[in-house]
Amino acid sequence: MLCRALFALLTLSAALVYRAGENLSFFVEPLTSLYVVAGFVFLVNLLYLVVFRWFKYEEAFGGVQIFGDILTVSAIAYLTGLLYSPFLFLYPIVIICGTIILGRTGGYFTAAIACITFGLLVDLQFYGLLSPPGFEATPFVEELTWQNVFYRTSVLFLACLVTSLVSGYIADQERRARADLAVMEEQVKRVEKLAIIGEMAAGLAHEIKNPLASLSGSIQMLKGEKGWEPHHEKLMGIAVREAARLSGLVTEFLLFARPGVGKPESVDLLGAVEETVALLAQDPRRGHHARVEVHVGEGVTVCMDSGHLRQVLLNLLINATEAVDEGGLVVFTGYGDRNKGVVLRVKDDGPGIESEDVKHIFDPFFTTKKDGTGLGLSIVHRLLEECGGGIRVRSSPGEGAEFILSLPAGGRTPAALSTSGPVLTGANEIG
């Protein structure tokens, strides 16, 4: 709206300067009509400004203004010679504005409407149904032949087409950059928030852990004393169990708050996954059976602390096996990508994650499980960030969940680099 007002002011000023330089009458065509157009643009712009705050749909409001600009530019072109108007460059400018406000498709529609409007006016001029005022005897007006009409309209149409294509491409890139920037800003805010929380809470966790160890040891010693009633033994057992649970929670929190730099090294991804699956298969706390299939390209390695990598794999595997029903399936798929990194996908056929929960699953202490701590996926996210990797999730209710990890690549063999897809290397059963 500001640019439109400036343009109207510039047009009015140029008309007045031209009139004064040529010693023309104040009311002479086409200057009089230009005065009217400039005044009309000012009034319409004022109307836009008044109704702007009450217009709910900004893109629709922008579309109305763009359509009005096409009509305004067409009126200016008509008043200044139409086919020979020096203001035809305004059409591509309107198309660029339409693309910025309405996107690529909106830019195409703007270009189409501009070409149709201009083409209709030129047809009316060519067949003698319309004559631009004040330009009948102008020296720079050539004979209105079909060759001139075809050449000049083709140049304008081509300019509008190229402008819509280029501006549409730039608008798409700009929108993608904005989306990527928004994601990055969200991640930065999360990291900053977690860093502050981690620094504050890590010290508190250490202060809690030491008394817990003393409390647990003292209770163990009291249990060995004689003269306790049976119900005293039961209470002592509860106290020991809960102290161990708190100690485990504090240990997990310390791993999340201060994971440590670790020692990055080249780790075979297939071996790490198979070891994790075998480790969990021996855990007696798994109350159901889940099938685990491993599809990892042989020779694919990642550059990461081996302990951190196994912690990531273990947390994801525990999460997946707890999500599936009896006989459910968990699939690991790993391969090298073209960007010299490694992609690892962990997919289960469980109930999936609700859409409102997806954006919170990496937040600390967020959990949908009855007995969960909400730190498992937070630890995964933190450890991957520490090594320069990342994680994202794809899930729909009823369709399972898939966690996609990007990991820094270690030294890989040429065969691994050319791997085009996953290779089935084994299947295990956990229970």
Describe this structure in words.
With 431 residues, the protein is α+β, with helices and mostly antiparallel strands. The chain has eleven helices and eight strands. Among the domains are: 55-185, no CATH class; 265-430, Heat Shock Protein 90, CATH 3.30.565. The protein has helices at residues 2-21, 31-51, 58-79, 90-126, 146-223, 230-257, 269-281, 306-323, 355-358, 376-386, 414-417, and strands spanning 265-268, 290-296, 301-304, 328-336, 341-348, 390-395, 401-408, 424-430. Residues 412-431 have low confidence and may be disordered. It is an enzyme of class 2 (transferase). It catalyses: ATP + protein L-histidine = ADP + protein N-phospho-L-histidine.
List the SSEs and their pairings.
Layout (H helix, E strand, L loop, with lengths): L1 H20 L9 H21 L6 H22 L10 H37 L19 H78 L6 H28 L7 E4 H13 L8 E7 L4 E4 L1 H18 L4 E9 L4 E8 L6 H4 L17 H11 L3 E6 L5 E8 L5 H4 L6 E7 L1
Parallel strand pairs: 2-4
Antiparallel strand pairs: 1-3, 2-8, 4-5, 5-7, 6-7
Helix pairs in contact: 1-2, 2-3, 3-4, 4-5, 5-6, 6-10, 7-8, 8-10
